[in-house]
Amino acid sequence: MLIYGLVLAFIIGLVHFFGEEIDERTSVSSLFFASFSAGFTIAYFFLELLPEISMTSFQGLEFVFVLAGFSFFYIVEELIYERSSHITEIKKEFKELHTAFITGYHFCIGIILLFLLNQDFSQALLFFIPVLVHTAVNSLAIREMHEEILDNLLLKLLASFSTVLGVGFAHLFNIPSNVSFSLLGLIGGMFVYLVIHDSLDPQKERPIGFFLGVLAFGLLLVLL
Predict the structure, then answer these.
(1) The pLDDT value given to residue 17
(2) Could you tell me the sign of the dihedral formed by the alpha carbons of 70, 169, 153, 25, in that order?
(3) Which domain range does residue 196 map to?
(4) Spatial separation of the C-alpha atoms in residues 69 and 189, rounded to whole Å
(5) Number of domains within the chain
(6) What is the pTM of this model?
(7) For residue range 66-88, what is the model confidence (pLDDT) as tens digits?
(8) Confidence tier at 1 by pLDDT (50, 70, 90)
(9) Contact 161, 14 (CB under 8 A)
């Protein structure tokens, strides 16, 4: 399963690395794509991720990790925006933190990806596709990093392919399943926050895109 994990993680890394080029080519339909991604991810969260987490035993605390992931992003963002409301200034002031945050987030996704592959390939695929779709549009995409970071090829490669590093880490170290499920809950909570923050803007939302995203995930779920 390591080979599958590395391949899937490498695909995510490619989407990250060429995120600016992808964004330029899809700018005309970016609002539709963002809405489709939101529908797909929300459907995954409610139809697959929550039931999967609820099957594990955390003595009634299984959804605390989901709440923690959601709350963490919200609190961090509020603390950052209290210092400045200008996005350019924020990116400059917190460029190192932002880079570390992006890298760590996708490193954790790599750990979860290999864990799910070892559990069930279809579960891993259902996790991988929303991650891949959402990678191109969310605020933790590599293209959202500060220009100085993007100009550093080594740092850009490290951040882009941190998912591959996460897969390698999970392979080298035997991470307990309860820790992996906890991490899955945290990532799930972050997923939902990112969708609400980045995609579900009533003034920009494309309902048909959201509906097609939900429908696409439902069809994928049936096929798998």
Answers:
(1) 79
(2) negative
(3) 2-223
(4) 4
(5) 1
(6) 0.81
(7) 888 888 878 877 776 666 555 55
(8) confident
(9) no
